[in-house]
Design brief:
Layout: E1 9-11, H1 20-26, H2 37-53, E2 58-63, H3 66-75, E3 83-88, H4 91-102, E4 106-111, H5 120-128, E5 135-141, E6 143-144, E7 149-150, H6 153-163, E8 168-172, E9 191-195, E10 206-211, H7 213-221, H8 231-234, H9 250-266, H10 268-290, E11 296-297, E12 309-313, H11 318-330, E13 332-336, E14 351-355, H12 362-378, H13 387-396
Parallel strand pairs: 1-13, 3-4, 3-5, 5-8, 8-9
Antiparallel strand pairs: 2-10, 6-7, 9-10, 11-12, 12-14, 13-14
The chain binds pyridoxal-5'-phosphate.
Length: 398
């Protein structure tokens, strides 16, 4: 019998849950875009965005999803024919590389597979093999939302520094900003990108790019840049119109003001720690289930697992069956697996993901885990015991 009535929980790794406070902030008539409160509100966003990214440099907002932010970062820094080095750790760094390719940028890929983080030693080696500095930028995701891996950005920066290679370090924080610790300036990141629909708890529609002075110097020679993506006209514009190169994303801006306030009220350190503890609860449960039967975490190394999303492997077709069981019977929807095998491969149905980013708390995560536990039992899928006990101990912090 279905027990899915009540508030449905979309536990996919983006778009994430939009808090009622954000929804309410957006629920208003269209504001005047030419003068008044919207302008002051817009000005107030940039310092808070910079704080979120750990930078004293520059933030720009685009009306775009993450793919748009990818393109913005590339177009302001590169020329047609330039080479970028993509550190592939799943679907998403590759996706950034494909956007680059489409812009006429040459893409070199270091492939670390679907179950491991980027290895700084291999990056150092690839840079050492580029004495003429043909590589203009290194593209990497902090969290790959497909594989669930978290790359060590600071260690990758060290590899760049130790080889003395001048390539820009560009980091996709779309799944991780406002979820995982990220310190753009302290870690030596030149360009960071994120989107509105994950850690920032908004609907999709805003893309954010953060850039430092080195990246802005690259803008001097970048011939990929076009009027819409140009970050210069959007930075300290003379007229409000230039912030968004057209009509501002009015309601998203009210929502963003609210979500940034929520993060500030909780405290960014607390936000990061909350995600870390909730992720540990998920891992404890998954490891207990996996002690018997086919369930397996995609990333074995705890130190390299994301706090935003957990990527899991089951037997086919049971990953899909479990997801469907949870939606129909428990009122919680898990994420599909992506980028692991081709969608027409029967093994596609092995994979699923649990999103735990943004507006999530202990009962949402524990409820999701208990629902998975029930689903494994209802579908008679073999699994180890003690998962919920283990997760609840993490939440109890004992
Ligand atoms: C979600 C996501 C993207 C893509 O964002 P869109 O808004 O779908 O374009 C890119 N990179 C990472 C790491 C993501 O999690």
């Amino acid at each position: 019998m279905s027990l899915a009535q009540g508030r449905h929980y979309l536990a996919i790794p983006g778009p994430s849950v939009v808090p009622d406070r954000v929804l309410n902030a957006m629920h208003r008539p269209a504001p005047n875009i030419y003068t008044g409160g919207l302008h002051a509100l817009t000005h107030s966003l940039f310092p808070d965005l910079c704080r979120l990214a750990g930078t004293s440099h520059t933030a720009v907002i685009y009306i775009a999803n993450g793919h748009g932010a990818w393109e913005a970062a590339l177009s302001n820094t590169l020329c047609r024919g330039d080479r970028v080095l993509v550190l592939s750790t799943g679907r998403f760094a590759n996706g950034w590389g494909l956007i680059a390719q489409g812009m006429g940028i040459e893409v070199q890929t270091l492939d670390f597979g679907l179950r491991a983080a980027a290895d700084p030693a291999k990056l150092a080696q690839a840079l050492a093999e580029d004495p003429d500095h043909a590589i203009k930028a290194v593209l990497v995701v902090q969290v790959d939302t497909a594989s669930g891996v978290r790359n060590d950005i600071r260690a990758l920066r060290t590899a760049l520094d130790e080889t003395g290679h001048p390539a820009l370090l560009m980091v996709d924080c779309i799944a991780s900003m406002g979820v995982e610790r990220f310190e753009m300036d302290a870690w030596g990141v030149d360009v960071a990108v994120t989107g509105s629909q994950k850690g920032l708890m908004l609907p999709p529609g805003l893309g954010f790019v953060f850039y430092n002075d080195r990246a802005d110097r690259a803008r001097d020679r970048a011939d990929c840049v076009t009027a819409y993506w140009d970050w210069r006209s959007r930075t300290n514009p003379e007229i409000y119109y230039q912030y968004f190169c057209g009509t501002p994303p009015t309601h998203h801006l009210f929502g963003l003001r609210e979500s940034l306030d929520m993060i500030a009220e909780e405290g960014l350190e607390h936000v990061w720690t909350r995600h870390q503890i909730l992720a540990h609860a998920v891992w404890e449960a998954c490891e207990a289930w996996g002690a018997e039967g086919p369930l397996e975490m995609n990333i074995a190394d705890r130190a390299r697992r994301s706090h935003a999303v957990t990527s899991l492997r089951l037997s086919a077709p049971h990953g899909t069956e479990l997801r469907e069981w949870l939606t129909e019977n428990a009122g919680v929807t898990l994420g599909i697996g992506i980028g692991m095998v081709a969608p027409e491969d029967p093994d596609w149905h092995r994979f699923f993901r649990i999103g735990h980013m943004g507006h999530v708390n202990a009962h949402m995560v524990l409820g999701t885990l208990a629902s998975i536990d029930a689903g494994l039992k209802a579908l008679s899928l073999p699994h180890g015991s003690g998962a919920l006990e283990a997760a609840s101990r993490v939440v109890a912090q004992v």
